[in-house]
Design a protein that fits this description.
Strand content: 25-35%
Helix content: under 10%
Number of helices: 0
Oligomer: single chain
Distance between the termini: 39 Å
Length: 79
């Protein structure tokens, strides 16, 4: 399992997100980050974040492609 951040700080007034003291470097959507509260004492906290990208790449979970030629689907907005 990847390492988890020690502290995520949501600045709701400025709609900014800090992960272990480092500001998230990209523009965040107008809704800003959202914190989902814990339901139990040992549950991990969840933060939902929407940010923008010029393009996105999706590698399917069931991809049979090799590491040299992965099967990739590019998502582009049609104008």
């Amino acid at each position: 399992m990847p390492e988890l951040p020690k502290l995520v700080t949501l600045d709701l007034a400025k709609k900014k997100l800090f992960i272990d003291g480092v500001e998230f470097p990209w523009h965040i959507s107008e809704e800003g980050p959202t914190l989902h509260t814990r339901t139990g004492q040992h549950d991990l906290r969840r933060v939902t974040l929407t940010f923008y990208a010029e393009d996105a790449e999706v590698i399917p979970a069931n991809s049979q492609g090799s590491a040299e030629k992965p099967q990739v689907a590019l998502l582009k907005e049609s104008n």
